[in-house]
Every structure is written in structure tokens, then in C-alpha cells.
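User: For my dataset I need records formatted as: sequence, then C-alpha cells, nothing else. Please produce one.
Assistant:
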Amino acid sequence: MLPDPGDRHVLAAAIVGRASVIITRNLRDFPDAILVRHRIRAVHPDEFVSGLIEVAPSVVLKAFSDQQRRLTKPPITMDELLGVFLRLDLTETVAQLRRLLA
């Protein structure tokens, strides 16, 4: 049983969908002791995205640029979007994106 019964549907969806990872900022509500039984692990979004950057930096950079261009109401600069990512605790992701953009 998960610490927060309100998260059961997330684990159930992961099991039914045969996912190996649940991406969540709420790691404490997805303990390894429970997830390991289903061969699933919980990963913070920053770890997940920064891992993607290591594997396919050009693909992630293009997705980031595309996202920024599509944000038009109101328009947002790349630096502002990086600020949003920082507020979402994506610190490693932002550091890696800044290196790619430099």
C-alpha cells in the first residue's frame, strides 16, 4: 500500500501500462519497497530530463526550443522558460540546457 492512497491510480496505471518508471516530484509517496515488486522505480523529473539530455542532447534542445516558440500567449523568452524550470526544481536540467545554449 502506498503512503498516500490517492496515488494508487498512478501505480495501477504504471502496472497496467507496463511502465518501468513513474516520473514524479513526489518521491516519498512512491517508496522503492513497494515499487520494486512491480519492477518500477520513481524518478524525479530533473533526473529524468537531465538523463535524456545526456543521451540525446540535440533532441532535447530542439524540444525545448519548440516549446519556447509555441508559448505565445504571452510570449516567453528562453531565459524566462529556464526560470520556470528552476521554479519546478529542474536545476540540473537547466544547467545542462544553459551549457547547450552557450
